[in-house]
Amino acid sequence: MTSPRVLRGRLLDLTADPAVAGRDALRYVEDGILVMDGGRITARGPADEILPTLGDTPIEDHTGKLILPGFLDLHIHFPQSRVIAAFGTQLMDWLERYTFPEESRLADPDIARAMASFFLDELLANGTTTALVYGTVHASATDAFFAESAARNTRMIAGKSMMDRNAPDFLRDTAKASYDEAKGLIGRWHGAGRQMYVVTPRFAITSTDEQLEACAALTHEHEGVFLQTHLSENDREIAFVRELYPWAKNYADVYRHFGLMGPRALFGHSIHLDDSEVAMLAESGSAAVFCPTSNTFLGSGLFDRDRLAKGGVKIGLATDVGGGTSYSMLETAGEAYKVLQLRRQTLRPLDAFHMMTRGNAEVLGLAHLIGTLEIGSEADVVVLDARATPAMAHRMTAAAGDLEQELFVLMIMGDDRSVAATYVAGERVVRPR
Ligand SMILES: [Zn+2]
Fold first, then answer.
1. How far is ligand 1, taken at its centre, from the CA of residue 193, in Å?
2. Which of 5, 16, 29, 203 is least enclosed, having the fewest CB within 10 Å?
3. pLDDT for 200-249, tens place per residue?
4. CA pseudo-torsion sign 138, 318, 301, 85
């Protein structure tokens, strides 16, 4: 028997896409109670209704603060926590100069475990409770990541990177070895507790035809695994793909040809797409993942959200650390707003908070488990304080009672300092010092 955990505060989640349902998508209780037990949300509602049913169960008081579902980050690299803020390059040079040498260190499982541990603690400190995670080419490093995630009981989706060409020898696998290693990892971790697997060819450039075929086989042979890779991020990358696959209509056509598109496939960046590529993503039910801090940091380009949305493409939001510059989904939403400003598009606060929670969960097909504060959902929760810093508190004096302004302040000025608490499967996370 576990004992219930009871939170009091301002409950906020989204029950639909506000782009469709408008403000009706917002579910908000000013003085609310959230009850969590056995890893799930078991009750929720106004304090005056729920409190009398609770007897003398102790209450964790977050009055005045917002209680939301934990954030989801749909594209991030756990081995790159020391590559973040690496000066002066764009994608291809950045990989060669900074990223590949650093990723090679994770051949040592002790280093991998320490990296995974730091990374997961950092995500949780930022209120991110689920992420779609790239590992290195080393299967043992992805084992280490899953072991650390399992120890924290976080719902993480991770995979070993597959690269059998155009990468340094010390980071290269083969089509056969990568298939066998991924299969082993799926057997050990996919569906073990809260862990899930994502088949992870780094991108078309670093895989042979045989390896891309092996990726398709893995997704067909194992129920419920995801697929993630990079698509159309940078001009030099796109030109190289054209050289390597002269028969392909375009970059996306390579992935389509090898059977890698589908409702569980997520394509990071998807910036420079032609109309037929947009149609391929939409028709296959694949998702494009918007990584704003990475796209501006590496000078890759400006994601065209409206064009993809109009074309019927599912869109996720992500940090892409270490090309991305922040672990915070709040800061990421703020930077997404700025990128879209440059495109003469907009990101309303409700849409941003939907993307970070239920929207990203919908992209994964996991909104029945995570991304809302629905009764029965897994109890991953973040508590936010829009007055966390003096500048925020000062700004908030001009926003009293206006919830959408408060959310906007959080996404423009907020970061890990705005995260008052994080709960994973109903347990409060305590950050190791
Ligand atoms: Zn990436």
1. 26
2. 16
3. 999 999 999 999 999 999 999 999 999 999 999 999 999 999 999 999 99
4. negative
